[in-house]
UniProtKB/TrEMBL annotation:
Source organism (scientific name): Cannabis sativa (Hemp)
Origin superkingdom: Eukaryota
Alphabetical list of InterPro entries matching this protein: CYP450_AA/FA_Hydroxylases, Cyt_P450, Cyt_P450_E_grp-I, Cyt_P450_sf
Keywords from the named record: Heme, Iron, Metal-binding
Molecular function, one GO term: oxidoreductase activity, acting on paired donors, with incorporation or reduction of molecular oxygen
UniProt keyword annotation of Metal-binding present: yes
Cofactor: heme
Residues that, per the record, bind heme: C70
Pfam families, sorted: p450
Name this polypeptide is given: Cytochrome P450
Amino acid sequence: MSLLQTALVADYFIPKGSNVLLSRLGLGRNPTVWDQPLRFNPDRHLHEKRCDLSETDLRFISFTTGRRGCIGGELGTNMTVMLLGRLLQGFKWTIPEGMESIDLSTEESSMFKVL
């Protein structure tokens, strides 16, 4: 695919019709986006409010995009939704004895307890 319109990216002029290739490795090691990008630190993602795999900042291109993108991203999402549906359908869900209600807020502290 070629560029649909002329663009200026990081002070580089890219004319309409040019082929553009994004480096997944370069995006993942961009020091303007990531603190100490060459250091293995999975904890850097713990403080993010959310992870959007289709964000425009291109911090993540885990499954790439387009016709040559990995089908695993969409497949994984669909499988997770189907699994949740089967769990809801296949079991009788009740509140544990002694509890009147369950807090379903999405605050981290209410969902998981770190041991």
